[in-house]
Amino acid sequence: MLPTDKNARLFVKSYFTHSITEAIEQARVEMGPDALLLNTRPAPPEGAHQGEYEVVFGLRPGAEDGGARAETAAVDPVQDLRKQMEQIREMVSRIGAGPVTASRPHSVADALLNAGIAPRLAAEIDLAVQQRLRNRSAIQTGRIKSIGDWDPATVLQETESEIASRFTVLPETGRIVALVGPPGSGKTTALIKLAVTQGLAARRRVHLISTDHYRIAAAAQLETYAEILGAPFTLAETTTALAHAIESAPAEALVLIDTPGYTAVSLEESGGDLTGFLRSRQDIDTHLVLTATTRLADLRRVVDLFQSCLPAKLLFTHLDETDSTAAIFSEAARTEKPLSFFSTGQVVPEDLEPASKARVTQSLVLELPQPCEAVA
Ligand SMILES: Nc1nc2c(ncn2[C@@H]2O[C@H](COP(=O)(O)OP(=O)(O)OP(=O)(O)O)[C@@H](O)[C@H]2O)c(=O)[nH]1
Ligand SMILES: [Mg+2]
Q: Is 98 left (phi over 0), alpha (psi -120 to 50) or beta?
């Protein structure tokens, strides 16, 4: 027997699943085609081990047998059901009789999940988009329109606005900048690009510092660039030398600090001094350099690892190698750190652009397959 919500006069049951589509399939099998989808929300902590979503379904008493009993009831069952649906209005949508396929998203959340956005974030955006549509219909018509009645363009527009509201961009640098990040993420290349675009192109003096004394070639790479740019270069082997190099740069100069690529192991073994230094120097604008092609779970791990440096911003590279901005958006939203610059290739200095909301949201919205079906 299903639990009953006496006020709504519905049997109510929550499904904890990894996708809303999965919950709909389960509810159709267990509760039959008359089950009503009442609500979706991120699963509370006690249910989260079963799935990221709590999807709530309701079933009118007597409808468990597929509605056969409802047709013979004394009260007009259709009218009764309509009344209840009016009461809970926009939250209620009926599960269609057609087959549910995994490739056909049934909610904004499913579409965002398909696009690669973190599950909890996708569910939160879904709820926020529903709220936006409720507000919109209340303002426009004085009544709340069922969410399934909205045209796809409006749903898409509200989804894009909601995505844009969940992250920030700050495409600028402080006077003293450090780039940190995992090996090969593009720190040195981005540093040179910044030296040109933020320094020399703005007729500003630039001072380059490398702290990568572990690999001769790494420091030599930066030193060569410094020579080409006509900028002073210092190899700082200790944090004391680093502090001295920063202090000895001219007061108006843009100081750019390159760091070694750290893994979890090397960061623990040899990165402690540098991370402690960066943490203690709030006047240093530290950007965490990340590859846009990294799998979301790995990206999250790297971001958490480099939290020891207290980075102020995220700088993404390799945007030329992926059409997806889902990982960029997911981490920018999760960490609430602004996006600073995007590296879009190997060419110095051209392949660097200021981070923009449009670049992130437009790619994401393009990935939403059938927004018209998103809130069916
Ligand atoms: N396609 C592409 N390649 C890039 C981008 N940024 C950097 N690269 C390339 O990636 C490689 C590594 O770049 P580096 O700047 O040396 O990376 P790093 O983070 O300094 O590397 P380590 O110092 O070894 O940790 C080089 O071949 C770069 O040309 C980018 O945005 N797109
Ligand atoms: Mg490097």
A: beta
